[in-house]
Amino acid sequence: SNLARRAMRQHFHTGSSGSSTLRRSLGAVLKDVLGLRAVHRSTGKSARDYTNYCFTADGEVRLTTWMHENLEISFHPTPDYVTLEMLLVHHLVPVLNIEHSANPYTATLKHLRTVCANEARQQKNLGLP
């Protein structure tokens, strides 16, 4: 139940895109469909404030709503979760996994995320919220 609570808080909670690669990837893919605008995640000077972008407050709400209406999450307790995860990634080739999967959409997803990071950088450079 701790993992379930953490996953819900990190990935399915409005406003958590800055710390959720799942939300950033989904938001990048659904950017035009949901009318999302990427913004920097904090007012610091770290490059991660842009690469780990988030979306405007209303966009975060739209993304969360879409996720709750279209996604399901489940858990399978196992003592060797690393091995199980690698086996599943290898077998299922999830399209949003850009680290451990050689799926045909990796380059496209990385490009869409770069577009969002650049938009967040532009917002900051223009002094926009």
Explain how this protein is built.
The structure is a single chain. This protein is mostly helical. 57% of the residues lie in helices and 3% in strands. The protein has 6 helices and 2 strands, in the order ααβαβααα. The protein has helices at residues 2-11, 21-34, 48-51, 57-70, 81-92, 106-125, and strands at residues 38-39, 54-55. The protein has a two-stranded antiparallel ribbon. Helix 2 (21-34) crosses helix 6 (106-125).
Helix segment count? 6
Mean pLDDT: 84
Rg estimate, integer Å: 15 Å
Shape: globular
State the share of residues found in helices, binned by percent.
Answer: 55-70%
Biggest sheet strand line-up: 1-2
User: Main β-sheet: number of strands, strand sense, barrel status?
Assistant: 2 strands, antiparallel
Number of strands: 2
% residues in beta strands: under 5%
The end-to-end distance, rounded to whole angstroms, is 36 Å
Task: Give the topology string: H per helix, E per strand.
Answer: HHEHEHHH
